[in-house]
Amino acid sequence: MNGFEVRLEDVAIALNPDTVQTTLNGASVDSNVTKVGATTTITYAFEEFPASQSTQDVQLSFEDTAGNAASFDLSFTVTDVYVEMDPSWIAEGVNTSASGFVARVTQIGANVFGGTVAGAEQQRLPESCTRMKPI
To answer: I want to staple 42 with a disulfide (CB 3.0 to 4.6 A). Which of 6, 7, 64, 114 is the partner?
Structure first.
């Protein structure tokens, strides 16, 4: 989830897109407002990712083309479930004098173990690392 989108349809009166103001959780935010035909689309991208399963309160205020003010409130819940990292885990720099992760990546030909599922399973076995033989 990177933000929200609200679409408003003109019915009896037309919304003036230049008057739209958006509030998120009580703070005024800059939203993107576009109008195509009778549909006004209001989008907002979060500056910071919201907390998992948090409720976000949005208030939209605007005027119609006759200058009449209107507003409405809506809310939504961030349904994505994720675990936030503890801020104490943040590395404060890179120690280039100490070793880091070591990866020993190898690739063997498809025919070393016959190119079959049974051969792939044989390749995973610890003893296959010490006594590889062509098939």
So the answer is: 6
